[in-house]
Write a structure and sequence with these properties.
This is Exocyst complex component 5. The protein has 700 residues and is mainly α. 74% of the residues lie in helices and 0% in strands.
Length: 700
């Protein structure tokens, strides 16, 4: 524990008798002083003793340090001597090693020619045996030494190639020529390799393949291996799966057998593509090529897809440096004759199929598709009919049929979707945007022009004139269905066509074509504004039939029980139905545009209708009630301008009932202050009491 002087003194005083009052004894300072003096003396003696011990230890430490330094110096000298000896030994070893290497080179220089001479002597001996026609050496007669015999025959065959022509003929056509033996041995080795492969002896196959590597028949050995690998490999109906499994199995084995496994595996794959796959593809496609375009295109897409998938699996194997190009060439060699005219077949099929889908639909409706006039004259007739309501020809009765079918549209879009998918897979990358544009053009022709545009034209021709009593306004149904269909068309444009043309010049061409289609349809829809004329015509018929002059000038002013007239009830009911139908048939800004036009015409109709009658005081109140109901109906339009027009009309109707003295005040109100004075005067003139001098004086 750390030394604390205060605590030490306290303990010493406490142990001294008379040093404190805890023990009950009296405090004795003399005794305590005596104890302190004695204790100080003891501490001084102890300090001297410890100091002597420290000095002794320091002297001993200095002595040992000097001895250790001396010993270190001696060790350094010994180390220097040892290092010098090591350098001398290293130089001596290097000298000896140089001598040994030189001696080895000399021995090798002597031994190599000697070995070659021995080998040459052996070959000359074997050569003489062939010349004599008697093969006596054990290496030729013992079948177990076929490897050694193959090596000798290979060397003799190379020597024979360098002999003079005369000697070569003698050697070649002797009874036991090296050429004949070369061929026989080669056949034996190939036979041995075949047998080993059938037995599954990988080590023996590797050994024989290594021997045959230097023979001309090595490629034949590879062919035999490839042929036997495929025996029993294609027993199922799925040739592509069988090929993948076969290549997977051979890939594991070929590295253990051949010294160039990537070349052998590539040759196997080439054989599978050029023999098995090409034959299979030809059988599948030629069957339907001329008789069934739909099945032909489906088979072509399926086979090409499965072939490319197989190629992707084979990319995992080592086939050399440029395996991507190698496999692409194999695929191209199989399908090139089919892909060259693919797009022509696709367009021809799409055109035939789309025409059949449309014709089948029109036949189911017992409808003979008619030629409807287009161009400037037709447009002029429509515009004249809109502005003047003149009958420029009989309208076509469609009997409520829109001639638009969701089923037809789905079928056309499905066919086009499949065509886009085939185009993406089968087209050359450089031709892809062009081919996709041709397919898109087919979709535009049959879906937009032949189906939607025809339905719009038929719907326009079926719109009754404004003075017709027919209330069958089926054109709005046509608009609704055409709008829905075009959304589907636009979705396919974005989902399936855009990815194929997004990075090509054809993108702007497709967008322009789509824009032209939209503008063309919008023109047709604008021409369909005749529908609004028909609605206004129906309202006129209702007002003419239901509104009576006595409604606003009742015979008994004090006995009027109705809140608004029957004509008002029926008109409002009709308008609300038409507003709901317009909202259901259109979307976006088109809804507001059409409702605004209808609301303005509706206001004009009511305004002109009210000016046909004279109003008593009670009749004016009833007119105000009618206009209030019309204003409620106008709120359903949710168009501020329409509501403002009816608010103003409601304020004008107040002029029919206000007291003569208050006319000027009402006319200067917020809603009427900005109106032309002639309009205000025209409403005041409708009052029964207008001709009274008092009323005329107040208004003037």
């Amino acid at each position: 524990e750390p030394f604390v002087a205060d605590e030490y003194i306290e303990r010493l005083a406490w142990r001294t008798p008379g040093g404190g009052s805890r023990g009950g004894e009296a405090f004795d300072p003399k005794r305590l002083l005596e104890e302190f003096v004695n204790h100080i003396q003891e501490l001084q003696v102890m300090d001297e003793r410890i100091q002597r011990k420290v000095e002794k230890l320091e002297q001993q430490c200095q002595k040992e340090a000097k001895e250790f330094a001396k010993k270190v110096q001696e060790l350094q000298k010994s180390n220097q001597v040892a290092f010098q000896h090591f350098q001398e030994l290293d130089e001596h070893i290097s000298y000896v090693a140089t001598k040994v290497c030189h001696l080895g080179d000399q021995l090798e220089g002597v031994n190599t020619p000697r070995q070659r001479a021995v080998e040459a002597q052996k070959l000359m001996k074997y050569f003489n045996e062939f010349l004599d026609g008697e093969l006596k050496s054990d290496v030729f007669t013992n079948s177990e030494k076929i490897k050694e015999a193959a090596d000798i025959i290979q060397k003799l065959h190379l020597i024979a190639q360098e002999l003079p022509f005369d000697s070569l003929m003698v050697f070649r056509f002797s009874p036991h020529s090296s050429a004949g033996k070369y061929h026989d041995l080669e056949c034996q080795l190939i036979q041995e390799f075949t047998s080993a492969q059938r037995r599954g002896e990988i080590s023996r196959m590797r050994e024989v393949a290594a021997v045959l590597l230097h023979f001309k028949g090595y490629s034949h050995c590879v062919d035999v291996y490839i042929k036997q690998c495929q025996e029993g490999a294609f027993l199922r109906n799925d040739v592509f799966e069988d090929a993948a499994i076969l290549c997977q199995r051979v890939n594991k084995q070929v590295g253990e057998v051949f010294s160039n496994p990537e070349t052998v595996l590539a040759k196997l794959i080439q054989n599978i593509f050029e023999v098995k796959l090409q034959s299979f593809v030809k059988d599948q496609l030629e069957e339907h090529r001329k008789s069934d375009a739909e099945q032909y295109l489906k088979n072509l897409y399926d086979l090409y897809t499965r072939t490319t998938n197989l190629s992707s699996k084979l990319m995992e194997f080592n086939l050399g440096t440029d395996k991507q190009t190698f496999l692409s060439k194999l695929i191209k060699s199989i399908f090139i004759s089919y892909l060259e005219n693919y797009i022509e077949v696709e367009i021809g099929y799409l055109k035939t199929r789309s025409a059949m889908i449309l014709q089948r639909y029109y036949d189911s409706k017992n409808h003979q598709k008619r030629s409807i006039g287009t161009g400037g004259i037709q447009d002029l007739k429509e515009r004249i009919r809109q502005r003047t309501n003149l009958p420029l020809g009989p309208s076509i009765d469609t009997h409520g049929e829109t001639f638009l079918s969701q089923e037809v549209v789905v079928n056309l879009l499905q066919e086009t979707k499949q065509a886009f998918e085939r185009c993406h897979r089968l087209s050359d990358p450089s031709d892809l945007p062009k081919n996709a544009f041709r397919i898109f053009s087919m979709l535009v022709e049959f879906l937009c022009t032949e189906h939607i545009d025809y339905a719009l034209e038929t719907g326009l021709a079926g719109i009754p004139s404004s003075d017709s009593r027919s209330a069958n306004l089926y054109f709005l149904d046509v608009v609704h269905q055409a709008n829905t269909i075009f959304h589907l068309f636009d979705k396919q444009f974005n989902d399936h066509l855009m990815p194929l043309i997004s990075s090509s010049p054809k993108l702007s061409e497709c967008l322009q074509k789509k824009k032209d289609i939209i503008e063309q349809m919008e023109v047709k829809l604008d021409m369909g504004i005749d529908t609004l004329n028909c609605m206004i015509g129906q309202m006129k018929h209702i007002l003419a039939a239901e509104q009576k002059k006595t409604d606003f000038k009742p015979e008994d002013e004090n006995n009027v029980l109705i809140q608004y007239t029957n004509a008002c009830v029926k008109v409002c009911g009709y308008v609300r139905k038409q507003v709901e139908k317009i909202r259901h048939s259109m979307d976006g800004k088109n809804v507001d545009t059409v409702l605004m036009e209808l609301g303005v015409r509706f206001h004009r109709l009511i305004y002109e209708h009210l000016q046909q009658y004279s109003y008593s005081c009670m009749g004016g109140m009833l007119a105000i009630c009618d206009v209030a109901e019309y204003r409620k109906c106008a709120k359903d339009f949710k168009i501020p301008l329409v509501l403002q027009l009816f608010d103003t009309l409601h304020a004008l109707c107040n002029l029919l009932v206000v007291a003569p003295d208050n006319l000027k005040q009402v006319c200067s109100g917020e809603q009427l202050a900005n109106l032309d004075k002639n309009i205000l005067h025209s409403f005041v003139q409708l009052r029964v009491d207008y001709r009274s001098a008092r009323l005329a004086r107040h208004f003037s």
